[in-house]
Specification:
mainly alpha; two-stranded parallel sheet; 8 helices; elongated
């Protein structure tokens, strides 16, 4: 596991800790970066300034995975933070002090690292929506078929009652659905209107939680 650090992960947004400021002054006294890299001691200082936060949390998380018997199948890179602002743009640094720009960070993510994961995640939610939509609307279709004279296991009234019971469960999800979709609109900088609310209600009543849960977590952003 290789960790790549940046400055913001070690400072508060309101101006940073005294430890963080000492680190920056040390970097400036040492002459800044050399050939796109910094002294490894500078990276160790960043890590030390954040030992109770991102570093400790990361180590604890992977220790728990190891304790549970989970072993990584391939090498991984963990990128922390939004980058250090420099004259050449934002930079991230690995343990050896090597600098990475935004293009290099994107290359580290690679096709298998991010793109495939996001595509699989979206396809999974689409499949869930198809499954729950079928389960929701099938009783209504069977009730209509029974009313038309088709011989089915249950009477049309029973199928209709089952459909209404599923709809009642979906109706309980409406407050969460409206909140999730409203937040998604805000993240995209869009105004939230009645048409959006109507679409959220219709989608939730049709398929249930796959209509709003992925939007809550930004899967389709």
């Amino acid at each position: 596991m290789r960790r790549i650090y940046e400055e913001d992960c070690c400072f508060s947004r309101s101006g940073g800790s005294s430890v963080g400021r000492r680190i920056v002054r040390t970097k400036e006294r040492s002459g800044g970066s050399r050939g796109g890299a910094v002294d490894p001691a500078f990276v160790r200082g960043l890590e030390a300034a954040c030992r109770g936060g991102c570093v400790a949390t990361t180590r604890f998380a992977f220790s728990m995975l190891e304790h549970e018997g989970i072993r990584p199948r391939r090498r991984a890179v963990l990128v922390l933070g939004a980058g250090v602002p420099t004259a050449q743009g934002r930079r991230w640094y690995d343990a050896g002090g090597k600098a990475y720009d935004e293009a290099a960070i994107a290359a580290l993510a690679a096709f298998r690292g991010v793109l495939v994961f996001r595509v699989k995640e979206r396809l999974l939610w689409r499949a869930k929506a198809l499954l729950t939509g079928t389960a929701t609307l099938a009783p209504l279709a069977l009730a209509a078929a029974g009313a038309a004279g088709a011989g089915l296991w249950l009477a049309p009234a029973a199928w209709l009652g089952l459909f209404l019971a599923v709809e009642a469960l979906h109706a309980c999800e409406l407050p969460a659905s409206l909140r999730a979709r409203r937040l998604r609109a805000l993240r995209r900088g869009r105004a939230w209107g009645r048409a959006d609310a109507a679409a959220a209600v219709a989608a939730t009543l049709a398929v249930g939680y796959p209509a709003w849960m992925p939007h809550r977590h930004g899967v389709f952003d």
